[in-house]
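=== How it folds ===
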Amino acid sequence: MTAVALTPSGPFSLAASVRFLEGFTPASYQGAADDVLRLAFPADDGHSTVAVAVRQEETAEGEAGRVRAEFTAYPDTSGGADGAVRAQLARVLSLDVDGSGFPGLAAADPVVAGLMADYPGLRPVCFHSPYEAAAWAIIGHRIRRTQAAAIKARLAERYGQRVRIEGRTRYAFPTPPALRAITRDPGLTEVKIERLHALAEAADAGELDAARLRSMPVDHALAALRDLPGIGPFSAELILIRGAGHPDVFPRHEPRVHAAMADAYGLDETASGDIRRLAGIADRWRPYRSWVAVLLRVRAAHIGGRTP
């Protein structure tokens, strides 16, 4: 087992991240009373699996404590992947972004100030990788989110790595080679299996590398993602924002965010369809447009009694 540490820059609450995951349907996450975040996921290298337990140190009120993680890689890399795992975990928790300027948005925007007050320290908790986010998009196409979550969990149990993390069992989503070997599964059509195979090949070819996607102009990255079979405009934004962890993208194809914005800013009913107007409002959130959009979705879900 290897230990790494992450020092948040700006507000961050691991407990808030855990609560978010408990209500995030694709994660199928069940937390524990100890507020330890236990995760199992395919590593960015495309072949190994990581099991990790994450804790946050207690500090004086108002300060973000350091985040400590202990992980094991399967197969054992003997410490050779420490830096890569640390970077991936930081991205999943949005700790790879300097959040010190985030509280400053509140001074200029009362809506953002209210979101920060309601969800202190909550940053986007991302999919473990663009690869896993894209797989979720393909699995969930034209079926209910709960159905998609059940299929995704079953794939993890049948074809992914089973690990024990501090007394709890977790199943990681299959690595690209394991996903490519699946030929049939209840709930997956032939078309979806073909698209998942194509996705696995794209991941092996480096086309879903998070750093690569984030380094590209946003429009170019979204266009590249839409070239993947089964990935449309909505899914491409999901992969870039919640898979690659891009902190500053306004989602133009997410109606729930648009409706939440119109409600939060007291706009008329037609405003949720005026993307140009909403994008202009979102410009106030730079360079954290993705973060504020996630908080709006969380707020809207809680108001509506749904999961985020």
The CA atoms of residues 42 and 175 lie 5 Å apart. The beta strands are 2-6, 37-42, 49-56, 67-74, 162-165, 168-171. The domain at 2-100 is CATH 3.30.310 (TATA-Binding Protein). The two ends are 33 Å apart (CA to CA).
